[in-house]
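Can you give me the bound-state structure? Components:
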Amino acid sequence: EPEVTQTPSHQVTQMGQEVILRCVPISNHLYFYWYRQILGQKVEFLVSFYNNEISEKSEIFDDQFSVERPDGSNFTLKIRSTKLEDSAMYFCASSASRYGNTEAFFGQGTRLTVV
Amino acid sequence: LAKTTQPISMDSYEGQEVNITCSHNNIATNDYITWYQQFPSQGPRFIIQGYKTKVTNEVASLFIPADRKSSTLSLPRVSLSDTAVYYCLVGDIKGKLIFGQGTELSVKP
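Here's the bound-state model for the whole set.
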């Protein structure tokens, strides 16, 4: 079964540092997403990406965050000047289309710990 | 996107059928109903999706009444490995999925 791959599985960083979370979506998918889940809380939408640009973003996705598809396979989330409250699981997802009759495939996540 | 309401938690025993109902009173005409499963420290996993009536796959069944204001996820003969959080999502994706609090299902031996 095809899968979304995320690296690293766990990242520890110091407050104020920049981190880049990496994702390899399923190869024939066109829509890409980042979500985050703070420990014990629900999964929160951050951003969706299609055709090399952001389609939608939540209020969480402020200037501290950016996304990029640097090549034909990777999809990255950059968090500048990390804060303690950025500690969470970050999930990448991809789907073949963005309409409601399709499924999104999620990666296993990157656990980000900001100290 | 339609707001969903589902029980916060449910308990069951191995071998039983589990039904989790989700209310979505303001579902729109174009909205689909999708259920995801999430294990601790893992990403959500698609279970099933439907628009109306009944949908069945190898994992679960989804029952949707004619008014579509609710839906029921049915898991036949659950096992310990079905212990997870189950999310009901409603809406035309349009670039995002909105997760609620989900239902924490605990399956006991």
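A couple of observations. The mean pLDDT of chain B is 91. Chain B touches chain A through 26 residues (CB under 8 Å).
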